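Bug #77: duplicate submission created two jobs. Keeping one. Sequence:
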Amino acid sequence: MLFRQHDRCWLAQAPAKVNWFLRVAGKRPDGYHEIETVMARVSLCDTILFQPTTDSALTLRVRCAYPPALRATSIPESGENLVLRAAELLRQLTRYSGGAQITLVKRIPAAAGLGGGSSDAATTLAVLNHAWQLRLSDGELSMTAAELGSDVPFFLARSVWAKCTGRGELVEPLLARVRQWLVLAKPESGLSTAAVYRNCQVEKDHRAIEPLLAALAHGDAARAACHLRNGLQPAAEAQCADVVRLKEEFARLPVCGHQLTGSGSAYFGVCRNRRHAAACASRLRSRGIAAVWTVSTC
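Kept job's structure:
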């Protein structure tokens, strides 16, 4: 994430992510699933403005900046929003008495598998740790992040690419020498992460991730795209006809590889370069897809 201070305000960019690989390894006693995944940050970002205050009030204002067709899923401005939950958790942990006025500009759609809420939470932890001068260590922030959600620790890591295990909270940065252009699409419908996981199948192939990791380590994006895998996609397709349609539309494109990200409903294709991604995006828009972006890993 990127953030900077201007006078008494802090401005931050909270990036989305895509899953290049996701294997469901089993069900855990705590009700979560054990997973193995490779994630990469991408250039689609929410913007968050933080203005610390001396009183204890924590307020959040949300502005939606993504296409109108995606706005059926409302973004709460109350305590259930992960931004406010992250800020409140920091205060409880440190007994800090101040507050903040927060404005969140949403460009990452909800119910998409893009990690927007998790990224917003991680950004809130990182920025307020500085703005409130709390001086929490990276380890302390990471443990706090894991309490908020499985993907939140990934966004705190200082790495574009990472392999994540456990329920997703155990993060191993990858030194992948790959900057890749993607075409990203989101239908009007969204998907519930919990519902998709309830209907997924466990995969026992422990070595399935190795070809992708080897390709990324060698900076071979074309070979990496041949090893895309998402064990949640069959369950998502069974619940959402729009995911099936996106798979069919992407199959008609000259992309290097394509799949669902996370639990969906967003879908992405790996492209050769920026021009190729723009051309693929134009074709998808002409077919009436609700929202289409060209993005890069960043």
